[in-house]
Amino acid sequence: MRRIISKIDEITGNIITLKADGVGLGELAAVESHGRSTLGQVIRTKNDNVTLQVFGGTKGISTDDRVRFLGRPMQVKYGPSMLGRIFNGAGVPIDDGPEPVEESIAVGGPSFNPANRIIPTQMIRTNIPMIDVFNSLVVSQKLPIFSVPGEPYNQLLARVGMQAEADIIILGGMGLKFDDFIFFRRTFDESGVMNRVIMFIHLASDPVVECLLVPDMALAVAEQFAVAGKRVLVLLTDLTNFSDSLKEISISMEQIPSNRGYPGDLYSQLAARYEKAVDIEGLGSITILAVTTMPGDDVTHPVPDNTGYITEGQFYLRNGVIDPFGSLSRLKQNVVSKVTRKDHNDIMNTMIRLYSDCRQSRNKVAMGFKTSKWDETLLAYGNDFERELMDLNVNMPIETALDQCWTILARHFEPWQTGLKNDLTNQYWPKSGAAEGAA
Amino acid sequence: MTTMGKVVAAYGNMVTVQFDKEVRQNEVAFIQPADGGSLKSEVIRVNGDQCNVQVFEDTVGVRVGDQVTFTGNLLSVELGPGLLQQIYDGLQNPLPELSKQVGLFLKRGVYANSLDRRVDWEFTPIAKPGQVVKAGNVLGAVPEGKFAHKIFVPFNFVGAATIKTMASKGKFKVDQVVCEAEDERGQAVNFTLMQVWPIKVALKAYKERLLPTEPLVTGARIVDSFFPVAKGGTACIPGPFGSGKTVLQQLISRYADADIIIVAACGERAGEVVETLREFPHLEDPYTGRTLMERTVIICNTSSMPVAAREASIYTAVTIGEYYRQMGLDILILADSTSRWAQALREMSGRLEEIPGEEAFPAYLQSRIAEFYERAGAVRLFDGNQGALSIIGTVSPAGGNFEEPVTQGTLAVVGSFLGLTWARSNARRFPAIDPLISWSKYLDQMKVKLNQTDPEWTNKIKKAQRLLYEGNEIKKRMDVVGEEGVSIPDFSLFLKAEFLDAVYLQQNAFDAVDAANTIERQFDTFGLVGEVLAKEFTFESKDQARESFMKLQSLFRNMNSSPFQGEAHVRFKDEIRRALEV
């Protein structure tokens, strides 16, 4: 028994206000306007005034439209038949398939009890050496990809999705360009992983409020699968669009902005999503890889800045490669040389140190200073490192990548020049024939 | 009769309630939504017959017309034996107990007793029948870990009471009566092992506050030697993300020489608490040989938990600290991060539609920060014993910019500033505390104590600080004119500053030995560093100068990672001395 209201008092931005009784915060309502119906959610009540944010936007909504309260908060379907399906930001299928007949679950559920968390110790292989070798991704990690618009971050995300060891992949697209959406769909289809993918897609042209629901739905479904024992990888792109939607809504709610127009609770809003990443003892896990585009390559912009405080490291995508400087996986020390090969830790540090030296030599060249023989060695090494490991097209398991590191080192250096411990070089340094062959 | 009310408006976690009788500012109220449960909330503004309450839970489903019950009590914590080793949320709900009750996830409106009512404590009476006692007098004690946990007459007890009967030595649960007494009006009063105290009111049951003059050793050389923190003092650690705030906090929580460490994880990653949670029960307390967990209390209100409870969590931590200070103990509170607490204030202020200050933080931010840090302090108790409560708070400035209101507000009230910068963390100089911007007022304040072993200690430290500035000036010059533009004496001064940085200020957190230094070891190492700094080197060329310092650096690094006074340590020291004689 729900009253239907047919008088809207106020329409601002994506917000409408009307008079109704007995309506709870977060409750959903269907707004029926000229034959089309869109959902709205209660975000504020005051006496008998109820303020709704309308997912489909308020364009064309008229003051005499019918608003029907549904008596329940936002929900999403959950179950095995969701796999391989594509939904929009309101949870409606957009792949011409049937409405899934599954149970409904609430979105944005309570927080995982911190006392139940465990120290994660499993690595997720992605077959991308810059991740596996240099900044390993660990189960239950939350990592953003900081990127300038225009970088191939969606390609990177799609590759991780295709290749990562995960039972289920959930893609949340926020403000996604149509071309990128098609790209993701085609990539997952062609690589044959679509049957374990669920996509929640908010396109750039879709109403802005729907954008806010995408991560919540994706993570609510992920949480259920994780509790059911699945290893879930959640890919989100792009959280900057999500934050901009938050900004838009909060400004229309006349909230006082804190920093560059973003609402004061931006940190809490982002954290509430990222903190869903979890490794549940004896059951499944959620790992989150999310794109954050940095307007103007500015890491102090509120979105990447707040994100950096929340996540466990970050990948910087610059000039089409994962930049080894600045990129960081805070959890890698849980797995490096513990679950991976024993040479992993030392070779990782040595390769980066030498590459950093190479960059200094490059600066020398750029400044027109004289280069030494050592500089020449470093320059040649740096070029090989970039071509054979850093290039995002390189695709190899971590063991091969570690061998490749040794091969590159042997091609340019003598063991003592690398500063690696003797017991490692004795075991792993390639015999001269092998090194020549690789060169 | 209890005051009742009805919800008239709701927005986010702020609910407006129309009430029928009286309400107190900051009293606790429970909202009963139609779909069951009971949501804890706190009155934060009263206006006519309406008041605003902030709800410590998710408010989905709260409706206009929902019933509200006012308790008449301020937001309080339970104090008594059993606090140590606990893992609480911001409202002092024990998280492991909640996990037993409701499973993997937290559940709205489920609360548990902060102190376990089922545990037996071995009570030894101290007060005698016939004795007249006041708030804060000791009734008895129970052993809690290595401490004798004193049982006090509740601190909020008004007036005096005459003890009628006193329980004899034996086992009691926290809520069992151990003392029956009669107050001034002849009313019977009962005292148990536990009491409650409102978290936002400072517990001041002591004779006087003392100037903090005793150093708090953290194990980090750059802190203890250069920017020391006092027992009963305050320090703030601001730093951008990735500059190593958390690693530094974790090191301090392990190695600091306080009796009790309270870790308040306020609005930060849950993953960071997990390491403390899972590892402390297996790690040894460097001072007592017991497990670290035995001296630790964790208040854990991580970033995804309700924001209002985050605001409370800092006060919960400091109240528990003040309680243990009453027993004459040294307490250290590590609050990570006070920026998240300030943001919680900002969110609520926004919903209250208050006129915003800088970056939309409320205008009272500064006074709230001051109020919080002022609860630290060294005190002389009524029984003559001394206790100290120190606070080290991290700040997470937006964009790593220290000009923002929370950092500035904190700097105005703390005694020591340990500023972490990207410049240092990117150069892998850890801990990334920048010696050129950091300061500590305690270096002078604790002079007498610090100079006990070496009368010249503080002077030497100040001289070393000047060297760092001079070295930096030369470095800036070299950035412009190149190495060839500076003289060899200037260049070796620069190298001395770099050397001091490399072998003393920097410390390897992942090296079992180097991770923490005792104060004796710091005196020892700095003595040797001082010899290097004092030596007048004569170099032929800059390359020769660089090479000499590189060799010294390598020797010092090896010395730093050898166990103190061990064979290797002595050997490297000798080698350094020999190298200096050349």
Would you give an account of this structure?
The complex is a heterodimer of chains A (439) and B (582). Chain A has 439 residues and is an alpha/beta fold. Chain A folds into three domains: 4-72, Thrombin, subunit H (Beta Barrel), CATH 2.40.10; 76-333, Rossmann fold (3-Layer(aba) Sandwich), CATH 3.40.50; 344-438. Chain A contains 13 helices and 21 strands. In chain A, the strands form four sheets. In chain A, strands 9, 13, 14, 15, 16, 17, 18, 19, 20 and 21 form a ten-stranded mixed beta sheet that branches. In chain A, strands 1-7-4-5-6-3-2 form a seven-stranded antiparallel beta sheet, with no helix packed on it. In chain A, helix 10 (398-412) packs across helix 13. The longest helix of chain A is centred in the last third of the chain and has 24 residues, at 344-367. Helices cover 33% and strands 25% of the residues of chain B. Chain B has 16 helices and 28 strands. Chain B has four domains: 4-73, Thrombin, subunit H; 79-113 and 206-440, Rossmann fold (3-Layer(aba) Sandwich), CATH 3.40.50; 121-193, OB fold (Dihydrolipoamide Acetyltransferase, E2P); 457-581, Orthogonal Bundle (Bovine Mitochondrial F1-ATPase, ATP Synthase Beta Chain, Chain D, domain3), CATH 1.10.1140. The longest helix of chain B is centred in the last third of the chain and has 25 residues, at 457-481. With 582 residues, chain B is of the alpha+beta class. In chain B, strands 8, 18, 21, 22, 23, 24, 25, 26, 27 and 28 form a ten-stranded mixed beta sheet that branches. In chain B, strands 1-2-5-4-3-6 form a six-stranded antiparallel β-barrel. Chains A and B meet through strand 5, helix 6 and helix 7 of A and strand 1, helix 1, helix 4 and helix 6 of B.
